[in-house]
Structures are given as C-alpha cells and as structure tokens.
Amino acid sequence: MKKEYDVIVVGSGPSGSAAAKVLVNKGLDVLIIDKKKLPRYKICSGIIFKKSLEITEKYFGKIPESAFVKPKYLKGVRMWESGTKHSDWPFDMECGGAPNVWRSEYDYWLAKNSGAEIADETKVVNFKKDGCYVELTCNRDQTLSEVRCKFLISAEGSLSTIRAKFDPEFEDSIEWYVAYQNYCKGSSKLDPEYYHGFFDANFGDVYAWFNCKADYVVFGTAIKKGNKLEPYLTKYTRFLADEFELKIDKVEKKASCMGSNICSTSRFYLGSGNILFVGEAAGFLNMFGEGISSALSTGILAANAICESIDTNKEPVPIYEKMAKREKRYTTNSWKLAERMAGRKVM
Ligand SMILES: Cc1cc2nc3c(=O)[nH]c(=O)nc-3n(C[C@H](O)[C@H](O)[C@H](O)COP(=O)(O)OP(=O)(O)OC[C@H]3O[C@@H](n4cnc5c(N)ncnc54)[C@H](O)[C@@H]3O)c2cc1C
Known about the structure:
single chain; 2 domains; 7-stranded mixed beta sheet; alpha/beta; binds flavin-adenine dinucleotide
C-alpha cells in the first residue's frame, strides 16, 4: 500500500470491484481495501440474475467454473402462497438459467480482475477531508496507518463505517433488519433448481427463503432488528418439514447480517464532494434481496461520474445522481411490487 492513490474503494464486493475496473481502465491509480481476508465469505444466495450476468460478462468476461456450485444454473424464483400454491418467475433459459455461485469465489475473481491494487485484512476505521484529498485511517493487525486519495468510494455493503461517520443524522434515521441463514446437510422435496420464497408473515418480517447449494440445503429469514428470531425460524422450519419433508442431518453453518430500509424507503445515499457511496452502502437492494445487479451497476455509474468529473472539472456526485436515476426507480418499484405480492409492508 502506497501513501496516495487517485481513488480508494473501500469494499471488495461487486460494487467496489465494478467501480475499480472502470477507474483502472481509465488509467487511474486505484486501491481496493477490504477488512476481511480474501476470498471472504459473504452471506448470500449467490444467484446471478440476468442483469448481473450481462454486466459481469461485459466488464469482466465469463464467470470462472471455480465460482459455480451445484446446481450450476437455476430455473427461476418460486414464490409460495401456501404449501401447495405458488407462482414462478422464470429466469432466462436462453442462457441456461441463472448462475448459482459461491460469493467468495465470484467476488474474489471480480476483485482480482479489476486490475486495482488490493489491500485485504485492512479495516477503514476513520476518514477526514484534507483539502481536495480524503485521508483514511486504516487498521491492519492492530496497527493504524494513513493513506489518502482524491476520490473515495464507499462500497462497504449495508453497514458502512464511512456513511455512519459522514452523516450520523442519516444513520440514526435508518431502520435495520437482520437476515439469518442456516447451511444444513439434509434433504427436502423442494425443487433444487428453483430459489423458493415464502411471504407468510409468520416466517419473517420480510420473507423467508430456501435454496440448494452444493450438498447443503440453505434456508433463512429476515426480521426487524429487535424482534426475536426463534419463533419465526421455528415456525418456518416446522412448515418446511411438514409441507416439503425437510430433513436436517446436521446444521453446518449459521450466518447473519444486517440490512437497512434505505432501499424500500427510496432514500438512496450517493454522497457529496469527492466521497461517493455505491451498492448497498448507498442503499441499493432490490426485492427478494437481489443486490448484485445494482451493486455492479452503481459501482460503474459512480466510476463513470468520477471519470467525467476529472475530464470536465465538475463535481462527481451531481453527475452520479443523474446517472443513477434509473437504478433508483428500478429499486423503488421492485419494493412496491414486493409489497403488492405480499399484501403487506415488507421492509
Ligand atoms: C441472505 C442474502 C441472500 C442474498 N442473495 C442474493 C442473490 O442471490 N443474488 C443477488 O443478486 N443478491 C443477493 N443478496 C444481496 C447481495 O448479497 C448484496 O446486495 C451485495 O453483496 C451488495 O454488494 P456490495 O458490493 O454493495 O457489498 P458487499 O458485497 O456486502 O461487500 C462489502 C465489502 O466491504 C467490506 N467492508 C465493509 N466495511 C469495511 C471497512 N470499514 N473497511 C474495509 N472493508 C470493509 C466487507 O468486508 C465486504 O467485503 C443477498 C443478500 C442476503 C443477505
């Protein structure tokens, strides 16, 4: 890690890597920082929807075989109203369906292929403005160091240290949800080539899901922060057992993460000055919790806005705001649709 870069991207998820790729292509000196050791685990169903696939292939090429997991492609999303009634949202079968990937492998491949320098196991703990630079304080192995950049991109996912320090008032206004997911050795008669969703409010405040990955049956739910998980998960697990013969031999892994209601309340946070927010850090997450497409596309838009700002000497955020209008509209409409489908507020 040097002392200075044109752009520092905090976060090596799809939003950060997509931004880095565009900036490196422009000839800029770019550093990606991630607090985790890469490749890192990311709680996710790992389904690459059509828009994500198109952006991935356009900017990075074909997803490597090593990122795929069994079943390699999914046929669609199956939303269940009860144990017997469902509606299907088919994926594009012309390209074989939607790739089913391990996020650790897919994300690491994106980051390496961005061409940016990568500093992993390095957490950004603070930042300050220093003239036209932003100076970051990083923690690696309990040792603090400073690094500065002309433009900063927060691609930190839903919990953004930079956003929290940048705008504490906005941060206080956010409502939080917690997503839980179990990875189990076991079986069920739910079709493994579909991603299954259940809007029944007894199973969670948003919706509950089920899918198969490698030898695992994976199921989870999302609830409002502060609510107790146990009653929801117990009812949901019992329902899966009664209706779909879920059998759990062993729970191999339990994972959780936080998600915000920025997406469903359309209060996207794109930044100001030379600090830009992308992906979930900016609040982009679509219904069903699909967020890779908007992470990739907002990463690219923010990077394009920075490139245009350098060329025209104009502020990057107003350019980014203009470019991101369609993405915002898409996300907002997707949550309206989710509410119509569920017949209740979902987030
Ligand atoms: C249960 C679940 C299932 C999902 N399934 C799907 C799916 O099937 N398909 C889909 O499209 N979307 C899915 N999503 C959504 C998707 O995972 C996210 O929207 C997407 O990962 C957001 O990408 P991102 O780049 O914004 O952030 P992330 O992928 O979250 O990456 C953020 C990165 O920033 C790093 N970081 C954070 N803070 C700091 C810091 N201060 N310093 C250094 N590094 C930092 C983190 O370690 C992380 O690597 C799912 C989400 C959940 C919770």
